[in-house]
Design goal:
The complex is a heterodimer.
Chain A: H1 5-27, H2 36-54, H3 56-62, H4 65-88, H5 104-135
Helix pairs in contact in A: 1-2, 2-3, 2-5, 4-5
Chain B: H1 2-19, H2 23-43, H3 47-69, H4 80-87, H5 92-113, H6 130-135, H7 137-141, H8 146-154, H9 156-177
Helix pairs in contact in B: 1-2, 2-3, 8-9
Classes of the chains: A mainly alpha, B mainly alpha.
């Protein structure tokens, strides 16, 4: 579809805003609706839009297979790691208030940001991986 | 009023998705179903759920299902099963299954009679832990949004489990579908 100038220009225009919106949804997860899961899905959909327009090979240049494979597990590691760090500072597993990041509210606020980032990374990477593996079979 | 219209469309979408022979149309109808469902959630003030339903149910699931369809067949198989059903439409089997369906439905309807009314503030589910979750999050966790406080603090293990499930599905897809180029 990349020969069609309308599709190319519109998708080029939209993709940065979709990605920015994904980060907005992540960052505002504790104020309004949203969070890591929805943000990750929206981010993955921007990559999927790019692949639909430019094709699988071109898309793999932007989202390398190695990088998405590693990010699959990095997100869960961030989540679980924050829980373990809470243990080191004398709290329970995933008790963000014990993190040494200021008073209780501030610490738990930042802790929740951390795990939301972890969720976002995993969800986005897994959705991208599934899409590539599903769509990429025919070409080989 | 608008709730009834939305629920009416939901039922129509569900029936259409079952009746449709073309699987691509079914997937698209399911996407529409999810979108209407998102509106219903919004009407119930469950904005977080509506957001998830719109992005996951209507968005990414449709894309992934279409991608899966591109690997299989688009039409439903016209096997022997449908012919058998047409021939013996009134034999003993179908009468027995009809009775079972009606009895089960009657039991389910009877079960709902004991449930509290919709939106009843005195329902038991609103008096167990819910008041604490509504009152305490700001003091206990410093999070303004109640839903986030629930998901990340009180139900932190749950969310960790969900993330792990997604991670596992990604790994499974890689294991099952990826072909090594070297072979």
């Amino acid at each position: 579809m990349k020969d069609d100038i309308i599709i190319r220009v519109i998708s080029n225009l939209l993709i940065p805003f979709i990605q920015l919106y994904a980060l907005y949804v992540l960052a505002h997860g504790d104020l309004g609706p949203g969070g890591g899961f929805q943000g990750g899905v929206i981010f993955a959909s921007s990559i999927i839009l790019y692949v639909l327009v430019y094709g699988i090979d071109e898309g793999r240049k932007r989202a390398h297979q190695k990088i998405t494979d590693v990010l699959n597990s990095v997100g869960v590691m961030i989540y679980g790691g924050i829980g373990v760090v809470c243990l080191f500072f004398g709290g329970y597993y995933l008790q963000y208030g014990k993190l040494p990041l200021g008073d209780l509210k501030h610490a738990s606020h930042l802790g929740i940001y951390g795990i939301e980032i972890g969720v976002e990374v995993t969800v986005a990477a897994v959705m991208i991986t599934i899409f590539f593996e599903m769509a990429g079979r025919k070409s080989d | 009023m608008i709730d009834f219209i939305l629920l009416f469309f939901l039922v129509i979408c569900a029936i259409a998705a079952i009746r449709m022979k073309d699987l691509l149309s079914t997937v698209i109808i399911l996407g529409a179903y999810s979108l209407i469902m998102a509106v219903v959630w919004t009407r119930m003030n469950a904005v977080d759920v509506a957001f998830t339903e719109a992005s996951v149910g209507a968005g990414i699931t449709t894309v992934l299902l279409i991608a899966a369809l591109s690997r299989t067949q688009r039409g439903e198989e016209n096997g022997q099963r449908s012919q058998v059903r047409v021939q013996g439409s009134l034999n003993a089997h179908s009468i027995i299954s009809l009775i079972v369906v009606f009895v089960t439905g009657a039991v389910l309807v009877y079960g709902t009679l004991d449930m509290p009314d919709y939106g009843d503030p005195n329902a038991p589910s609103h008096h167990h832990v819910a008041p604490r979750y509504i009152k305490e999050p700001l003091e206990e966790s410093g999070v303004i949004n109640m839903v986030t406080a629930l998901l990340a603090n009180y139900r932190g293990y749950d969310t960790l489990g969900e993330t792990t499930v997604i991670f596992t599905s990604g790994i499974s897809v890689i294991l099952l579908l990826r072909r090594k180029i070297q072979q």
